[in-house]
Design goal:
Structural class: alpha+beta
CATH class: Alpha Beta
Mean pLDDT: 93
Strand content: over 45%
Helix content: 25-40%
Radius of gyration: 14 Å
Number of domains: 1
Strand order of the largest sheet: 2-1-6-5-4-3
Number of helices: 3
Number of strands: 6
Length: 127
């Protein structure tokens, strides 16, 4: 594993969590690949899907949370310097989400290409 790749992907995971907390769609405009797709596992056994534009609207459509961001990066895996996976949880009151983020390197830059998540605590996500 290349330590600089690991550190770069971890830094993106921190920026991701802080961008969610501070309601900063500009962070995700830069971070997300144009073909980004997000999948949420709902409490009723189904799934909901958002593309990049939908995700930016969700992040920008609410006020920032007060206080410090609450999150934990549980794992970072980099494979061959071309793809990476991050497992984390992040609080988006009144919920805590468990996220699995997939990154790909495009033209030398790490881009978030996929996010699969579930509600880990709090009201179930229904859409």
């Amino acid at each position: 594993m290349n330590r600089s790749d690991h550190d770069a992907v971890r830094a993106l995971a921190v920026a991701y969590c802080e961008g969610i907390h501070h309601a900063r769609p500009d962070v995700f405009e830069e971070m997300c690949h144009d073909r980004f797709l997000m999948t949420g596992v709902t409490g009723s056994g189904g799934a909901v899907f958002w593309d990049k534009a939908d995700y930016l609207a969700r992040v920008g459509g609410r006020a920032p949370f007060e206080g410090a961001p609450s999150y934990e990066i549980l794992g970072v895996d980099v494979a061959g310097g071309e793809m990476a996976r991050v497992h984390l949880w992040v609080d988006v009151p009144p919920r805590r989400f468990e996220d699995h983020l997939g990154f790909v390197r495009v033209d030398g830059t790490w881009k978030l290409i996929t996010k699969v998540f579930r509600t880990a605590d709090g009201p179930a996500l229904e859409g």
